[in-house]
């Protein structure tokens, strides 16, 4: 039994079905505030109070730990709408595959990992630079990790890339990972060219965090999904297999017996036994009779 199975036995009944839908609804609310905020500045200010900011959280604005899930990753366009539609499809399929509780662990774990990473980066930047740098968090890469989870679980399943191009899930996974690596390299190159060493490194961490943290959560999720075997269980398994591979001491059972002379490995440990491929049946002979016996069942 793995760690997630044990946790499901204790609190599995509190799992929220289709949690991905609520995250999508949160993004829709964020997009509405973003669009309305372009005309009414008060809504734009309201949306800024939802962003993750470690300094503000430490000074009493605790709601920011959760409300950043309403922050849209980009502006509202056709690609954003298609992404939200795809998320609902992925979520339904992945929850049927993993179960409601594991789906909750994947998504809630991604949010917690991002919160922890945000505080760590803020603290490290404060120690290194003397000023805390807040990171911009959205649920885009957390929701994208659902697609990666499906690709890991069903690598040979076929999907339609942008509803047109047929592609196996594993190639979709490779494509997304390559895109993230490319984006990180671009951030590294552009930041290194314009900023100093210490500030440049912290800026890279800030920009790359929202891409890397959900990947860390995904890796931890599948690591804890594995069935870990203790040393005691491994020892018992080895002993059980040994009982079937070797006869029990004192049982009088032998593994080899010559069909001509009847000798076994107990009569002479140096004897070599082989099966004859020309005999009709499983007849085993010692090294002295392997080439001198009369073949059985052949003309």
Q: How does this structure look, described?
A:
With 299 residues, this protein is mainly alpha-helical. It has two domains: 15-225, Rhomboid-like fold, CATH 1.20.1540; 251-299, no CATH class. Helices cover 60% and strands 5% of the residues. The protein has eleven helices and four strands. Strand 3 and strand 4 (284-286) form a beta hairpin. Helix 6 crosses helix 8 and helix 7 packs antiparallel against helix 10 (197-225). It is elongated, with a radius of gyration of 31 Å. It starts with a helix and ends in a 13-residue tail after the last strand.
Task: Tell me the layout of helices and strands.
Elements: H1 3-11, H2 19-37, H3 41-48, H4 54-58, H5 64-67, H6 78-98, H7 100-129, H8 140-153, E1 158-161, E2 165-168, H9 169-194, H10 197-225, H11 231-245, E3 273-275, E4 284-286
Helix pairs in contact: 2-3, 2-6, 6-7, 6-8, 7-10, 8-9, 8-10, 9-10
